[in-house]
């Protein structure tokens, strides 16, 4: 019996020491996030582009997903969010494809390629999420966002091309090139 009392007293003393240690120390839990990156490839390229039009845009897109069985939504499996994003599209001509044909001694015909989309960029700093909804059976994933933004970029680009973005870029390119060449006496500019 005395032996059991001694063991209980020792356990009690150890418990009090451990509890006192934790009470006197400031217990803090912190989150440690590490980001590791390395440069896989570096390359510098010369570009010969003449961007003649830039269109800035801000859009809102909605993403919804539900698991289904035989066309019926499974309860507690819906996920989605609203995302607001901003970006820009630049269009212009590739100066490497410009052709110059001399006509006589003081005139030249400059043949410009048709305009194309040079850049279509969504700024990461301008992406905001609203009404995020997740479920235990259907989690939100980074791939969902990536696919949504990729589809939205393509949709916006197609809409702008259909509205005449590249035609406007062609006109601006012709005006810009004409103004640059008029001072040299070269005034005839045509498109392929």
Structure write-up:
- This protein is an alpha+beta fold.
- 32% of the residues lie in helices and 38% in strands.
- The protein contains three helices and seven strands, in the order H-E-E-E-E-E-E-H-H-E.
- The chain has helices spanning 2-24, 142-162, 165-182; strands at 49-69, 72-94, 99-103, 107-112, 116-122, 128-133, 188-191.
- Strands 1, 2, 5 and 6 form a four-stranded antiparallel beta sheet that branches.
- The termini are far apart.
Brief summary:
With 192 residues, the chain is an alpha+beta fold.
Q: Largest sheet, described in full?
A: 4 strands, antiparallel
- What is the helix content? 25-40%
Distance between the termini: 106 Å
Tally of helical runs = 3
Described by its quaternary structure, the protein is: single chain
- Shape from CA axes? elongated
Q: Kindly provide the radius of gyration, computed on alpha-carbon positions and rounded to a whole number of angstroms.
A: 32 Å
Number of strands: 7
Q: What amount of the residues lies in strands?
A: 35-45%
- Which class of secondary structure composition applies to the elements? alpha+beta
Order of SSEs:
HEEEEEEHHE
Low-pLDDT stretches are none
The averaged pLDDT comes out at 80
Write the layout of secondary structure elements.
Elements: H1 2-24, E1 49-69, E2 72-94, E3 99-103, E4 107-112, E5 116-122, E6 128-133, H2 142-162, H3 165-182, E7 188-191
Parallel strand pairs: 4-7
Antiparallel strand pairs: 1-2, 2-5, 2-6, 3-4
Quick tags:
alpha+beta, 192 residues, 3-stranded mixed sheet
């Amino acid at each position: 019996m005395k032996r059991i009392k001694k063991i209980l007293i020792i356990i009690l003393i150890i418990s009090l020491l451990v509890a006192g240690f934790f009470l006197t120390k400031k217990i803090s839990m912190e989150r440690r996030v590490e980001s590791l990156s390395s440069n896989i490839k570096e390359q510098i390229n010369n570009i010969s582009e003449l961007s003649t039009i830039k269109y800035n845009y801000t859009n809102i897109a909605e993403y919804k997903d539900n698991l289904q069985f035989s066309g019926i939504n499974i309860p507690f499996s819906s996920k989605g969010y609203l995302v607001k994003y901003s970006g820009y599209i630049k269009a212009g001509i590739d100066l490497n494809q410009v052709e110059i044909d001399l006509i006589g001694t003081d005139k030249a015909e400059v043949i410009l390629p048709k305009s194309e989309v040079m850049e279509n960029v969504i700024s990461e700093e301008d992406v905001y999420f609203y009404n995020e909804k997740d479920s235990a059976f259907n989690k939100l994933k980074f791939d969902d966002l990536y696919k949504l933004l990729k589809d939205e970029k393509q949709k916006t680009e197609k809409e702008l091309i259909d509205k005449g973005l590249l035609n406007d870029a062609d006109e601006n390119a012709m005006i810009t090139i004409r103004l640059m060449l008029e001072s040299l006496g070269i005034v005839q500019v045509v498109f392929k």
